[in-house]
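Pilot study result, target chain (240 residues):
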Amino acid sequence: MLRGNLASDQQEVLLSANRLVQAMVDVISSNGWLNLALLAMEVSQMITQGMWKCDSWLLQLPHFTKELAKKCQENQGKSIETVFDLVYMGDNERHELLQMSEPQLMDIAHFCNRFPKVDLTYDLLDGGNVRAGDDVSLQVTLERDLEGGIESGPVFAPSYPKAKEEGWWLVVGDTKSNQLLAIKRVTLQRKSKIKLDFAAPAEAGTRTYTLYFMCDSYLGCDQEFASALDVKEAMVENDS
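Predicted structure:
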C-alpha cells in the first residue's frame, strides 16, 4: 500500500493510464489490428480492477481474498470460478461455501445484482444476401438484466481512485487475418440497438467473422460470437 506523495502519484497514473488506453484502442482500431485492440481493452479492465487477467475473477467481489477464491475453485461438485457461477448456486450452498456474515453476504448480493449480465442478439440487415465488395450492416441488440429494476450505477472498483461508469466496445473481426473490420463504443443501461458497418471481402466465398462485446471495467463478462458470412459473386453490369 503506497502512502503520501506516492499514493497521490499512483492515483494520477491510474487516471491517465485509463485515458491513454482508450486512446490506444482508437489508434489501434484505425489501423485494423484486431488482437492488439482486444488486448488493450483487457488492459483497461485490469487497470480498473487493480488485478491481472490471470487472477481469479472472483477477486472483483467485495470481501473476497485469494484464499477464498481458491476455496471456491476447489469446491466439491462444481468449481466456482466466475461471478455467474456464484450467482447460480443455491442460497444454502453459497452460504456454506463463503462462511460470511449477513452484512457481507448482502454486499456480495448487491455486487452480483449489478454485475453486467447482457443478452446479445444480432442480425444482418440485408438478410444475409451479401455480394463481394458490398457494404454490410450488422444490427446488434443488447438487453441488460437488472435485478429488481435497479440501475447499473458506477463500477465497483475499490482500487480505482474515482467513480467510473461502465463502457463497452462492440467489435467485428476476422481472427484468421487478425483484421478489425468494425468497432463502436457503447454505453449501456437497459436496452440498445447498435449498427455496425463494414465492407464484405472483394472475393466471393465463405468467411468466418467474430463479434466481440468487451467491457472496459470488469473481467469475466465479455462475450464473443463466431458466424459464417456467405459472400456471393459481385453483380456484373450488362452494358448492352
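One observation from the pilot: The longest strand covers residues 205-215. A full batch analysis is planned for the follow-on phase.
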